[in-house]
Every structure is written in C-alpha cells, then in structure tokens.
Amino acid sequence: MPSHIEFLVEEQSAESALANLLPKILPAGVGFDIHPHNGKSDLLKKLPSRLTGYKSWIPNDWKIVVLIDEDRGNCADIKNRLETAAEQAGFSTKSSQAGNFQVLTRIAIEELEAWFFGDIPALVAAYPGVSQTLAAQAGYRNPDTIRGGTWEKLLKVLQRAGYFSTGLPKVEVAAEISKHMIPENNRSKSFQVFLAGIKAMFP
User: Collapsing DSSP states into helix, strand and coil, what is residue 183?
Assistant: First the structure.
C-alpha cells in the first residue's frame, strides 16, 4: 500500500477541492501533497520534466496522480499525452499495468466544476440560496454533459441565488463546496472514475 501520494493539478481551485476531499477518500495515515500549476497548458508543458525528476528519487511506496480538465478538448488525445509523459519517464500507469502502477492519470470532464454539480446537496449546504431541486432540472441531470462551460454555469446558478455578482472566486467556491461533498454519492461519472482510481491503489 502507498504511504504517500503526490497530486499534480492545473490550478489552485483543484488544490482547494482536493485538500478537503482527500482526507475523506484516503486511508488513515496516508500522506499527500498537492502541487497546483498556472493552468492546463503550464501543467502539460512541465509534466514530462516533473515526472522525470520524480523518477530519480521517488520511493517505491509513493504514487503520483495527475488531474487535468478536459476543457471541451479531445479526451483521448489528452489522456494519451498524460500516459505518454508517464511512460517516457519510466513509470507504470494504471492504464498500462492495472495491477501494480505508480502513476494515475485522470481527466475532469469537462471541468472540475462538474464535480460540484455532481453533489447538489454539498452545493446547497455551501450556498443555501441554491435550489435543492437543481439536480432534477433539465440541463443539470448529468454533471458531465452540462453545456456552455461548467464554471460559467456554476457562476450563473450562484448569481441567481444571490451570490458573487462580480464574478466567480473559483478557489473560494471550490473550498466551500468540497467541505460538504460526500465522495461516494457524487453523480459525476468522471469523479467516480477518479475515485475508483484512487481506491485501486489500496486493494
């Protein structure tokens, strides 16, 4: 079993969310560090060298998770780029060696904010003005297929409820909603795939 997991994410909002979610997911005693980047392009640019650096020192009982947004891009192409970077650095990945892997690559479809729409009770707990029936409304039933950008839709939902008239403070919102999230109850398929990947580290 791993004793520690390094998380590479594209921005601070993902860091804020994972800081609250990981203690709910990981077994007691497993350490973690979260390393945010300056956006998706920054993470993709630095990933090969970062993984090569890790390979030179990382203990065998440590693992690495790379989490990135789809952002309406080609999911297969993004996944291939992440997997290739890991394999070229000399790591085994869950996709290539499911039983004994050191790197897990995961994509939030289409953005991290879809995971928040996957847990409407958490969204309402953080911002009580939001309708409790939002999950049943057309356009919000499947968090991973919300059209028009999930962070833009989240801003509209929150503004209709009387919050954030001047724009979405993504880091603050990620921290507040994730405090209330129950991982196993999340309706986002991409979140459940992320969760299953983490749990596969602890058979």
Answer: helix
The set of residues, in sequence order, having a beta carbon less than 8 Å from that of 184 and lying 6+ positions away, is 195
Q: pLDDT digits over 1-18, tens only?
A: 899 999 999 999 999 999
Domain boundaries, the chain: 4-112+187-199, 116-178
Q: What is the number of other CB atoms lying within 10 angstroms of the CB of residue 160?
A: 11
For the residues of 134-181, what is the DSSP string, one character each?
GGGSTTSSSGGG-TT-HHHHHHHHHHHTT--TT---HHHHHHHHHTT-
Mean pLDDT for 58-85 is 93
- Residue written as tokens 């833009």? 152
**Tokens (6 digits) for 106:** 């995961």
> For the domain with range 4-112+187-199, which CATH number is right: 3.40.390, 3.40.50, 1.10.287, 3.40.190?
3.40.50
